[in-house]
Amino acid sequence: MAQSPEQLELARRAAAHHALADVHRLAIVDALQLSDATPTELGLATGLHSNLLTFHLDVLEDAGLIERVRSEGDGRRRYVRLCPTALPSLVRSAPIVADDVLFVCTANSARSQLAAALWTRRTGRPARSAGASPADQVHPLAVEVARAVGLDLAGARPQPYGSVDPIPDLVVSVCDRANEAGLPFEVPTLHWSIPDPVGHGREAVEAARAQLEARIDWLASCRVGAA
Question: For the whole model, what pTM was predicted?
């Protein structure tokens, strides 16, 4: 007999809570609540050796709590991230000082521009963006997708890291290549492994915007004012 949607959802929640009934797996989820991480970084954060870490990651992935994605920079590298649906109900909110946020990606032409606009709308606070190798202009599809959800990027211009002044109190990289190349800011950083949508059509840009909006909603809910 086929299960109803309510029964399927109940089974999903039960599997998620069963997966989290272990201190190591709960520690992994806590470590991922604001920033994606490589398995090596998770091992350092949790003290788990590679074989045991892999076992726990498999359990969390089977329960639909995490996903592992290939880096767009170093293709040998993988990032582990929480599935968006896991954030509100299963993750313990950790306050973070984030009054002046800088979003970065390589070209500063789509993801980081969208992120800054979404942050400002969500929090009412200004946000900035910059890139390691800025493009000549914000990508037209990013401008269109932003406009469709009530955001204005028409006057935005890509900027290099060197133009960032004053220094922000938090930097969020939304690009694997930018993260792996290193960020020239001596402030706390987070990384969100979001695929580059440029060159992949409007649907890819819309998907990136949706991912950014979900991550920004969660980060904003954890934000406290600058100390």
Answer: 0.84
